[in-house]
Amino acid sequence: MASEVWPQPVLDLLTTGDDRPVFEDGDRVVTAAGMASLVRRAAGGLRAAGVGPGTGVALEVGVSPEAFAVIIAAFALGARVSGVRPGLTPSQKRPFLDLDGAAGAALVDDARAADLAAGPDDGAPLVAAGRPADLARITWTSGSTGVPKGCVRTYAAMSAAWAPYPDRWPPAVADLAARLDRYLVFGSLNSLVMLEYAVLTLAAGGTLVAARPPGLPDMVTRHRATASVVTVGKLHQLVRDQRSRPADLSSLRALLVSGSPLEPGRLTEALDVLGPVVFHGYGQTETGMIAMVTPAELAADPRLRASVGRAPAVTDLSIRDAAGRPAAEGELYVRTPSQASGYWADPDGTAEVFDAGWVRTRDLARLDERGYLYLDGRIRDIIIVNAEVVYAGPVERILGGDPAVAEAYVVGRPDDATGEAVHAFLVPATGHTPDPDRLRTLVGAALGPAAVPHTVRLIDRVPVTPNGKPDKKALPR
């Protein structure tokens, strides 16, 4: 039924919301009726440009009412929507645009979104046109491998999501939703997490508030924000600022922390300084939310600060050993109603991660007797910098390709500013001394700023395991 196809629930929320404020951008307040009009206008412009079921739309948008409207409009027309991270060079954008060969995908940036949303409004009800089996969204996990990896979701998967349906909310999400009166949105609405919780905010009766510089904690105070999503690095910075220059954060009721691991000690510090507002979540681009723990749970049992919470009832977890057999500790496999179905144009990657309806997280995990999930490390060699996945292998290949470097090893370490940071250890080639600054420049040019090593250390040799393999865990901290 059309009423069940994404984003019909959002369209219904807007068309029945009348004068309720749904988006605030500085002095500008857009009501539900006003946003519904912007969505219809954007849809009319996209339709006139040939966008419809199955066609590609690449969105390079930030945070504005028009950005939100054009995203919902593209989905309403049944397009395959692909987000482009703002600030990329033309060559970096090309993989996002050349998905259909010579035809390419229609690119909509902020200026084009504003033009589309300023077009005529025919007032006709907009009905979601997505076909369940069609691809609805490509979410790009990272370009740090040299080639972006795109997780694809169908309209059927998008329609199975919990965010717009209060009767589907897991208990932890329902607790969070009650705090989303004024949800602070920053970066880009292309973000899987930002958009998902924006939809949750609308379903909960809240308002999206565009965050404008300067950053935290001033944005919370200035916008009277009640909630937002933050990376681990931003949380650390907020805690430091509150210790040194306390701001009035009395409006704040929820901070959802995601993107990289949060150490129990840091979580305790955040709760002590900020109060019972921290929700610790765990998810992946391939799966969406996997688990969440609430401030009340963290206060009731401090041992849970080492956990990432419990999975919703509709989410299946399976912990397996190296042979794929059930185990008390091992690799976590996940199955969610709205998970991706594979990677765009990457059959090998799809076969490696998507296994008979399950998604391999490549994270090591265990469950306690109450169903709380604990993460014990990673099978894959990645570092998460400001919520961006950096693969160690490509960084090591660039460093090791320099004539002055005989061997290169890259590891991730916790970092207060970025959650984790890249650290490089180099064995110099005989008669050479590597130039750290030049090597950092090479990595940044090839893989982007997140992959640039925070430190570069020269070592005589790499530690080895008993079987003679390099032991990166034993590299100096």
From TrEMBL:
PROSITE patterns linked to this entry: AMP_BINDING
Domain AMP-dependent synthetase/ligase: residue ranges: 19-92, 125-344
Domain named AMP-binding enzyme C-terminal: residues: 395-469
Source organism, top-level taxon: Bacteria
CDD domains named among the record's database cross-references: AFD_class_I
GO molecular function terms listed in the Swiss-Prot or TrEMBL record: acid-thiol ligase activity
Gene3D superfamilies according to UniProt: 3.30.300.30, N-terminal domain of ligase-like
Identification of the protein by name: AMP-dependent synthetase
Species, as recorded: Virgisporangium ochraceum
